[in-house]
Amino acid sequence: MSSPYNPPPGGQQPGEYQQPGGYQHGAQSWGGSGSQQSQSVGYIGIALAVVGAMFMIAGVTALNWYSVGGEHATLSDLQPGAKDMDVGLMTAYGGFLVWILLILVLAAAVAACVPIGSAGPAMRVIAPLVGVLGVVVTLVALNSYWSKFKGLNRTQDVPDGKAGIFTHSASGLWMTLAGFLIAGIAGVFGPRRSQAVTRR
Questions:
Q1: Which of 8, 93, 6, 9 has its CA nearest to residue 56?
Q2: Residues 168, 132, 181, 112: what is their CA dihedral angle, to the nearest 10 degrees?
Q3: What pLDDT, on a 0 to 100 scale, did the predictor assign at position 191?
Q4: Which residues contact 62 (CB under 8 A, 6 or more apart)?
Q5: Which of 44, 17, 69, 2 is nearest to 186 (CA)?
Q6: What is d(CA 196, CA 37) in angstroms, rounded to the nearest whole number?
Q7: pLDDT tens digits, one per residue of 37-59
Q8: Is pLDDT above 90 for 140?
């Protein structure tokens, strides 16, 4: 007859406590702690996109693109001349194309800064490309306008006889170009990334 103080073979020694579930010293019984990367709205990019949009809207609607000899011309003031000289690209640009480009670059920049899954990385490339496209189209449209202007020998209408894309350029043109670039660059920032710690 075995003593109650003598455990059976393979049994548990006195003073030992066996953890349920095969717990071993140094291991975590209820899982471990880990981390995963989460994304939230990139507010820096959104703010830059808004600044870029404000620059473009002010440049297109209110500010002068050219000033010389006391005469000033906004983008809309260039439209009659563009139509009169039959400069199609400049006519389209001042009528609706500039607004399409503005909406596209702003939408791409905002989409790039919002965690929307697989489209986000693509938008971070598309936004700056559209911003550069806006600058290029603006310059090409103006170049076609002033080339036709000089080709028709209308520089005599200008006080100093000089005309060109950047000749006598004013704040409206520069604000519009800067707005396209700022809004495009805004998309590069993308969503804000944070390290979230999770425990199991």
A1: 93
A2: 160
A3: 72
A4: 74, 172
A5: 44
A6: 6
A7: 566 777 899 999 999 999 999 99
A8: yes
Q: What is the DSSP letter of 96?
A: I
List, in order, residues 6 or more apart from 55 with CB less than 8 Å away: 175, 176, 178, 179, 182
pLDDT at 195 over 50: no
pTM beyond cutoff 0.85: no
**How long, in residues, is the chain?**
200
Q: Which residue has the tokens 């939408």?
A: 107
- Measured between alpha carbons, how far is 199 from 30 in angstroms, rounded to an integer? 9
Maximum CA pair distance of the chain?
A: 127
- Segment 88-95 long-range contacts (CB within 8 Å, at least 24 positions apart): 89/140, 89/141, 89/144, 90/141, 90/142, 90/144, 90/145, 92/141, 93/137, 93/138, 93/141, 94/141
pLDDT digits (tens, 9 = 90+) for 178-191: 999 999 999 888 77
Task: Tell me, rounded to whole angstroms, the distance of Cα 92 from its chain centroid.
Answer: 25
Using the predicted structure, report yes or no on whether residue 138 has a pLDDT greater than 60.
yes
Q: Are 91 and 83 in contact (CB under 8 A)?
A: yes
Tell me what percent of the residues of the chain surpass a pLDDT of 70. 74
